[in-house]
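Project standup — Tuesday

K.O.: blocked on the structure for the chain from last sprint. Re-posting the sequence here as requested.
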Amino acid sequence: MKRSKVRGPADAHATTSRLLDTAERLFGKHGYDGIGMRALALKARVNLGAATYHYGSKKALYIEAFMRRFRPSNAEQLRLLRQAQAHGRALSVDEVVDCMARPAYAMGVAHPSFSALLARNLIAPPVFMHAALQREVGVTVQEYVGALHRCLPGVPEEPLRARVMFAMGSVMMFCANIARLPPMRRRVPLEPVFQELARFVVAGLQAPPAGTAVPRVDAVARRRAAALSSAPLP
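H.V.: unblocked you, prediction finished:
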């Protein structure tokens, strides 16, 4: 009598890896509603029963396919910020932005195949992803808002919270587009491009709150000139 093959942890890991790789690619290409669980299992070369056993539903598989890339990046953002704050000195806006942006940038460089799924969830995520993302990033957003509020006491907390979300969205959209670069361009160091992104985010965070009068350049220049003219000679 033929004995059934006993499957161990290595087999289970290979199955889940194929499912997640396939889900990342096909959900990114077709969207959540564009492909079913049976087709995903077929493309991943696993039976439908195994797919259901490991993830239970298409919704759970979609969430995990996204979170396996996003979750480590989010955790690293939080780790870097806490590590920087542990030294006890006040951080600059540039330092806070670097803690925020570098993990996401590294994710985009390391996993270009994730870009389509990332872009879909930035632009038009399935309804259930709103709650999943909120659970994942809630603590991170709160700690970044707190860190930036200490850097920018003149910006009220609610506008600052919105700016943190705008900043994270800009960083993630940059990461989602790394895969669009031609292969030759992807081999060129992207650090100068990253620095431009960081400068853009810093400028937005530091801008005066909406409704605040911004001094005209000529008025600022006149005040500086007046101050210099009234300063005592050495």
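K.O.: great, moving the ticket to review. The two ends are 103 Å apart (CA to CA). The CA atoms of residues 116 and 227 lie 55 Å apart.
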